[in-house]
Amino acid sequence: MLTRDLAIAAYDAGRIVPDRLARKTHRQYLDYAERMLEIYRGGIGQTRRQLHRAVGAVFGNEPDCPARRIDAFCKLLDDVATYQRDTRGRAAALRRDVFHAAAQRHPLVRQADRLFEYEEARVKAEIAGRLGRSWDEIDRELFADVIEFHRLVGFEGYPSAAALLARYNVAQVQAALFGAVSMTVWATDQFKTILRYAKLARLMHTITRTGEGRYCLRFDGPASVLRRTRRYGAAMARFLPALIACRGWRMHAVIQTRRRGYQVRLGLSSQDGLHSHLPPPEEFDSSVEQGLAQKWGPAPREGWLLVREGEILHRGQKVFVPDFVFRHDDGRNVLMEIVGFWTPEYLQVKYETLRAFQEHRILLAVASTVGQRLPELPGEPITFKSGLLVRDVLERLQTFSP
Amino acid sequence: MALSQTSLVFSEGTLLLRGMSRDEVSGVFGPAPWVWDQRVEAWRCDAKEYTAVRQRLVQAGRALDDEVAQWTPVRWPRVDIHRLREEQDAAVAAWDRMRRGCVVMPTGTGKTEVALAIMARTAVATLVVAPVRDLMYQWHRRILEGLGYDAGIIGDNVFRVRPVSATTYDSACIHMDKLGNRFGLIIFDECHHLPGPIRRDAARMSAATLRLGLTATPERSDGRQVDLDWLIGPIVYEMPISAAKGQTLADYEVVRIPVHLSAEEQVRYDQLSGEVRAYMAQRRQDNPDFAWEDLCAETGSTPEARRALRAYRAKQSIEDRAEEKLRVLEDLFRLHAGEPCMVFAGSNAMARDVSRRFLVPCLLSHCGKHERLEVLRGLEQGTYPALVANRVLDEGVDLPEVKVAVVIGGTASSRQAKQRLGRILRKSGNARATLYEIVTADTNEERRSSRRRKSDAYQGTRRRRAGKRR
Questions:
Q1: What pTM was computed for the model?
Q2: Does any domain span residue B140?
Q3: Is it true that domain A287-397 has CATH number 3.40.1350?
Q4: Which residue range forms the structural domain that includes residue B33?
Q5: What is the pLDDT of residues B437-466, one digit of tens each?
Q6: Which of A125, B105, B164, B176 qualifies as a FRET site for B323, CA 20 to 30 Å off?
């Protein structure tokens, strides 16, 4: 991720537009990205300062490139680079030796006279002799632990030049989000992933159902209810790559700029062509789910249509997205949750969740493992051995009254 | 259905109140501070309201299930604090009447001792918030020396929380949502840093009932010092800098030494100036109002503007690292041979130049805490004759017995000047302290220095201009 001071954005009629390098408008950057990666790949042994200067030189004649963009690329490259860190404090130890030796001879003067006899050059030569190394060598290593003088020892890199540019584009949106006071996501799909990652980023949610299979998810933090605060902007930025990896969403964030009280909007959607470095979420949690969905097919069976992750159940900060929703032509809705492998503890947690949402019609399907007895569960779950049968499910669905 | 009891808990830097209806809440509290939070179905407010909220609930006679305060009393293993001077005593007494508020005392007049005395008598879990890591470690050391307690450290990649801990503003702001209910007393060192828009969360998200702010200069350029009033408390004690000078502090004088660029530097400097000027002139042909800000804005779109900006920075660097400064420094080292000496540089590069030329230790951000302590102790005990630093030591780092300071660069801000000056104002018998300012003549640097001298830390000081050197 970038730091806030590396953010580049344009402002247009109350909207913030983070810097974006697109193939159409910035074709030449693909070549620059390749050259930057080359510099790092071939830069083992060089200092951070040398690498950053080389990266700067790539853009020497590029008319369209703010200095900050170059710094941002350096940060993204450094993020996947390993520098030699002076963990054993060798430079510090060398400094201690040198400064201690020189302390008795202070002040080191350019030219000795009757009052001060310690000449700089002589003292340095003397210390070098005592340490058994040349002064040039000592001078080079005296500050080797300063961050600009760290040397590159490894470069994990990015899969391709295009991947580096993609990461840059996402990173600039993240940098804009550092100033966010709230984020609203209109989602139609993959609710489980979106909500799970928001929770991992320690965001709080407010969920509103806007239609069948459509939700408005507002994300912020505990103190957001008291004041507009940028405190949770970094969490929203952390969450962003997971959102971008999903499909079927539109996002809107309110950003507080550094000028006091001045607010702008940031808009983004899954159609905007940003690429996350995270893989898209798995379509199915388990093969049992996948098996049932495939057997059921896209068309209704006896009036029942199967929809994946179609509903979000929520109370306060507790959420539950059942695996499937069965929607009947006549308006009936039944939720289904499948439990494949389980331990008694896991089943207990599932049971608590179901109890919290017991006003909903939830059908539970549990794998019956040999030798393990199911604990008491509400509403008589369907049990299955290797896969769920369409017939069994249909039979149970019919028992739910209209 | 039984009436649920009123409960108050700490939740991520805020308080949550449950078991009271809207009418009851407005009856007991009026319009503030509670806000209904639908997301968790409870009333929410900032943790800093804890003292007031609790008082109101008790007054209203509500049976309260209060789980907020998780702090404990502290037993100090060994209290060993110097006897306080009269004005320090007065500061402690003034704070004790309110038990929350700011104490304003000039640097070098023993703010730390005042804080330790307050800690000794409150004897409750305490968090000390310091501006930078050095100062955090310094507090750790002072607490160990004065109260015999090995305090926790929160910051600098360490997260060791103990009932008494030291931290930095940044770490406090980040972690206060988890730590806000574990300290009954919170101390903000150099508390003028607190009112930043995000940083203030360090006070807002804490439930501490006892609060102490320490500073030499409460004023901020953005005027936000007024917020200290509700973040910490009112100013309970103020000691003016003029009262400190000459009595508790050593007398001091400021000597300004202009230096000139060498012939080579001057050539290069003029060449760079020319580049910048040429670009500006060229752009002003189309746009007479073309300003420096426009140039900065253009660096994104024209390589020429980028080159002009680079030339400007190179020019600044020449001023900052003028060779003659090192020669003047040699003379000052000669003049004050045998006396510990502090040098403040305007950049890391210049600090390293000084360090390499004279082989005196330099304190920069890359130094680990052991090295910093070793260097500071070394100066104190006379193992090291001098040290050079940049901004790391801008504020309040303890440097006893230093009577000679040299400023060879830096930006003009009133507080920075005061803090730096305060550094050499340590009481040490009748010895006089001297602050030397080495500035490049006929450049921007000279302007910065004259702005610096206008700040009131210099009021009433004797000023000398050393002979022009050429």
A1: 0.80
A2: yes
A3: yes
A4: 6-66
A5: 887 776 666 655 665 555 444 444 444 444
A6: A125
